[in-house]
Amino acid sequence: MEARESELLAVQSPQRPVVQAILGVMEELAKIGLSKAGVNKSQGWKFRSIDDLYGVLTPALIKHQLAIIPQVTSREETRYAGGKSGETVTWHVVLKVDYLLMVPGGDHLVVSVYGEALDQSDKATNKAMSFAYKYMAFQAFGIPVEGMEDGDRDHVVVDARVAKASLRSQKLAEFSTLADDLGVDIQALLERRGMSSTADMSDEQVNTVVEHLRAKKKEKANSMGEGK
Questions:
Q1: 8 A C-beta contact, residue 48 and residue 38
Q2: 10 is in which domain, residue-wise?
């Protein structure tokens, strides 16, 4: 047996105190269950809320002396402008969170999960943390889940204009990268077309230029390969 396999088996050993504590919490929650008491106020569907989860999970954690300590290891944030004049801002946050499940004496396991959320105010990070904790708990302790995810009882719907703006931003970023790779002077290219900035370009023009630069980059790569 390889060393890595031995390490994994040691981590998963049911005799470890932290595994015993997790099994104890699972047994408690299997008896109690977790109903869908929350109701999404904008769309009407039911969900298991983070508060309901704390209500059933925390007593079991205390009883079996299992601590859960979070650490955010990465955070990505994207800003989308929507509405007629771009006055509506939607924040998209993706977190990776490592949860340390530990018992007295120091025996522990780490559970890594991602949390993702949208919000049009200042709660995207809080929502993403809630998502991460909920699904860490659902999966680590085997709590059955049905229905939709919640985000503090709100569900942000990104309209077509926001999605289109996001796609344009991605295309412009690719345009800039390709131009740098190929040594293309973006400002000179724009001026030849009677434009002062990329904001003057239509979506169709952006797509056309990106496709052209992709082809140029491929052609350059092929020619370099033939020269070897």
A1: yes
A2: 3-140
114 with 30, same domain? yes
CB crowding 43-82: b at 16 or more within 10 Å, else e: eeeebbbbebbeebbeebbeebebebebeeeeeeeeebeb
Q: Find where tokens 């390490």 sit.
A: 7
| Among candidate residues 127, 133, 124, the one with its CA nearest the CA of residue 150 | 127
Exposed, middle or buried by CB within 10 Å (0-12, 13-18, 19+), for 224?
A: exposed
Q: Are residues 85 and 168 in the same domain?
A: no
pLDDT 10s digits, 202-223: 888 888 888 888 888 888 777 7
Rounded distance between C-alpha atoms, residue 94 and residue 100, angstroms: 19
Domain count, the chain: 2
Q: What is the mean pLDDT of the chain?
A: 77
pLDDT tens-digit profile of 158-197? 555 555 666 777 787 887 888 888 888 888 878 887 877 7
Q: Tokens in use for 89?
A: 């801002």
SS (H, E, C) 30-57: HHHCCCCCEECCCCCCEECCHHHHHHHH
